[in-house]
Amino acid sequence: MKTLIVHAHPEPDSLNGSLKDLAVNTLEGAGHEVRVSDLYAMKWKAAADAGDYGPHASSPLKVALDSGRAFEAGALTPDVLAEQEKLLWADTVILQFPLWWYSMPAILKGWVDRVFTYRFAYGVGEHSDTKYGERFGEGTLAGRRALLSVTAGGPESHYAARGINGPIEDLLFPIHHGILYYPGLEPLPPFVLYGTDRMSPEDYADAAKAWQERLLTLESTEPIAFRRQNFGDYEIPSLHLKPGLEPPGRTSFGLHVR
What we know:
Blueprint: E1 2-7, H1 15-29, E2 33-38, H2 63-72, H3 78-89, E3 92-98, H4 106-115, E4 145-151, H5 168-181, E5 186-187, E6 191-193, H6 201-215
Parallel strand pairs: 1-2, 1-3, 3-4, 4-5, 4-6
């Protein structure tokens, strides 16, 4: 298995840094190949702008179309091209990050904004009366798996169905479904550590053991059963879920899980 770890924490000696290092050691120890994109160590440029597209940047700037032209011409900046190559190389992608303000750190969102360009991660495939592009289960990154490894400062009860922060499944849905599944990656159930602001050495030992167990079962873990866009569950072109497919009692984001 070939795994790309995209790590987003500014402190190398943080919990996230330890989890990243443990993942590298565990996977390599099991005979897998691993590459790491440590975004803070790389001093990753987070903002997408005209400089990413060189002579293909228009005025006024059109991020989607300009990024697509630059991608097709092989003219994206070297840092972006290198990350796209890593994604195509990988069988599995792990995003390692702390949950900041209910989402990923800005530097990781900036990695997505710059690397997931038009004609690479979206805007691909047939658009017709029966198919609305290759996305949500199809696309450039289809056939690969993805795992979110997330640390949260609050206790697990705050992220339960009745918790004040909202269910963790809902908080991570925009990443799982809208960033990973959209270009074809199959998200696995996330690995989430709660109460990390108060984690003791004993707690870390238990967390490290659980993390190693998850890493060693990546290939056998069933992905989240998101519905595929072009395989009969949605009306085209409205992309509304067809009547009668609603699971009993399930609403909102949960409608899109089989």
